[in-house]
From TrEMBL:
GO MF terms held by the record: oxidoreductase activity
Record-listed NAD(+) binding positions: 191, 222
Lineage, top ranks: Archaea, Methanobacteriati, Methanobacteriota, Stenosarchaea group, Halobacteria
Protein name: Glutamate dehydrogenase
Record-listed substrate binding positions: 71, 95, 351
Keyword Cell inner membrane found: no
UniProt similarity note: Belongs to the Glu/Leu/Phe/Val dehydrogenases family.
Organism in which the protein naturally occurs: Halovenus rubra
All copies of domain Glutamate/phenylalanine/leucine/valine/L-tryptophan dehydrogenase C-terminal, residue ranges: 186-416
Site note Important for catalysis, residues: 147
């Protein structure tokens, strides 16, 4: 079996389409919900350290604002495209609806390879990007946040650029900032913490526990590394992980804290010299483990890969890692897949908590933030499982999208956006 050429946008629309009949959303409403409201493309002239100038292409898509201000991360990656940014903005709209945040959905990105840019070049590019999109964003309008290859450093530069134009400091225009600039404790590890919460809940649902489980994680960046460390703290045995240079495997377990420190100090998985066997990313996806956690790029689990998956459960930490064709195979093979719009929602939940703290000019403790995150993830998981049982959807993704579509359609109707 082979898939269509990968289009994150087609995949996202197919996923929505599959939920339409359960959500009982009319054709007119559905047509509106699957199209973005607007997408901006910007050209970013960036001075290189050698005195030459390069033009980078950036995007910001605001997919849906019916449920509140647009919200979503910004990624710096060579694979960024308009199609991908629109799809990821659509995913954000469903994600915020599913976990009941008062937001719509957006996403941004710049086509670049940050590994080939110096810190100063990344800084100039980030500031140019915020200049390019600043008429579109704002603390009550659209609030960017981190995604692949962006973090507190880039958010600080974006916040500063926006504030310079406005004439005063506006922390709440972005989330995921450094703590000193109004960031919240807990945002860095929030997405991974949410993944750990959901992994534990789905294991419990099947009468299993982290202590009895082996885990393979594709990608050991922000999300993968924190998911790995926090799952290890919950007793799980993380046996494999990877980055773009390939993977490492030890059936007895790998030291997630040691590998995390290596990555945070600028190293790569390829540099790790612990007691491990080297494997490819493809082999990692096919390992015989209890839980497989894709935490890197989109559409890595194709129908072909799905045929070979030996994990009992998949938890999607990445956005869009599984194609619709692969979903069919996994459903047929009875391998439950917790969808991205729930599994990785911890990041946007804590972004929301950061934004709330900024707008109230009041800060919370790490314990308060983590407790709120765990509560929201747990409630959303339970709602998804209830919908799965009630609607008898073919898989968990369709149950999650059914709830998300219902809530978005209700917001459109209550606002009178449809005649
Ligand atoms: N950051 C957040 O808060 C959120 C992120 N997500 C999603 O989680 C995923 C990871 O994001 P994040 O952790 O922030 O990103 P990072 O850039 O911090 O990490 C990405 C990881 O994936 C690896 N990777 C990149 N390309 C490949 C590839 N082709 N094959 C295998 N591994 C690869 C990277 O390796 P290398 O470093 O070698 O390039 C790195 O280990 C994305 O899908 C993102 O959209 C979802 C919700 C929130
Ligand atoms: O923290 C946020 O606002 C958004 C994070 C994000 O981009 C995502 O959940 O995919």
């Amino acid at each position: 079996m082979s898939d269509e050429p990968p289009s994150t946008l087609n995949n996202m629309r197919t996923q929505m389409q599959r939920a339409q009949e359960y959500a009982q959303v009319t054709e007119n409403v559905f047509t509106r919900l699957k199209h973005p409201e607007r997408t901006l493309e910007v050209s970013l002239p960036v001075l290189r350290d050698d005195g030459t100038e390069d033009i980078f292409k950036g995007y910001r898509c605001q997919f849906s604002g019916a449920r509140g201000p647009y919200k979503g991360g910004v990624r710096f990656h060579p694979s960024v495209s308009q199609d991908e940014v629109i799809a990821l903005a659509g995913l954000m709209s469903s994600k915020t609806a599913l976990v009941r945040l008062p937001y719509g959905g957006a996403k941004g990105g710049v086509v670049c390879n940050p590994k080939e840019l110096s810190r100063d070049e990344i800084k100039r590019m980030t500031r140019r990007y915020m200049e390019g999109i600043r008429r579109m964003v704002g603390p009550k309008m659209d609030i960017p946040a981190p995604d692949m290859n962006t973090g507190p450093r880039e958010m600080a530069w974006m916040m500063d650029t926006y504030s310079v134009y406005e004439g005063h400091t506006i922390p709440e225009v972005v989330t995921g900032k450094p703590i000193e600039l109004g960031g919240t404790p807990g945002r860095i590890e929030a997405t991974g913490r949410g993944v750990a919460n959901i992994t534990e809940q789905i294991l419990n649902y099947y009468s299993r526990s982290p202590e009895d489980s082996t885990i393979a994680i594709q990608g050991f960046g922000n999300v993968g590394s924190w998911a790995g460390r926090l799952l290890a703290e919950r007793g799980a045995n993380v046996v494999a992980t990877s980055d773009v240079t390939g993977g490492i495997y030890n059936p007895k377990g790998i030291d997630t804290h040691e590998v995390g420190e290596l990555i945070e100090s600028g190293g790569q998985i390829g540099d790790y010299d612990g007691d491990i066997e080297r494997i490819s990313n493809d082999e990692l996806l096919r390992l015989d483990v209890d839980v497989l956690i894709p935490a890197a790029v989109s559409h890595v689990i194709t129908a072909d890969v799905a045929e070979d998956v030996r994990a009992d459960i998949i938890v999607e930490a990445a956005n869009g890692p599984t194609t619709p064709e692969a979903d069919d195979v996994l459903a047929e093979r009875d391998i439950p897949t917790v969808p991205d719009i729930l599994a990785n929602a911890g990041g946007v939940i804590v972004s929301y908590l950061e934004w709330v703290q900024n707008t109230q000019e009041y800060s919370w403790t790490l314990e308060e933030v983590n407790a709120d995150l765990e509560r929201r993830m747990t409630e959303a998981f339970e709602e998804m499982m209830d919908a799965y049982a009630e609607y008898e959807t073919p898989d968990l993704r369709t149950a999650a999208y059914t709830l998300a579509l219902d809530r978005q359609a209700t917001a459109h109707e209550q606002r009178g956006l449809f005649p």
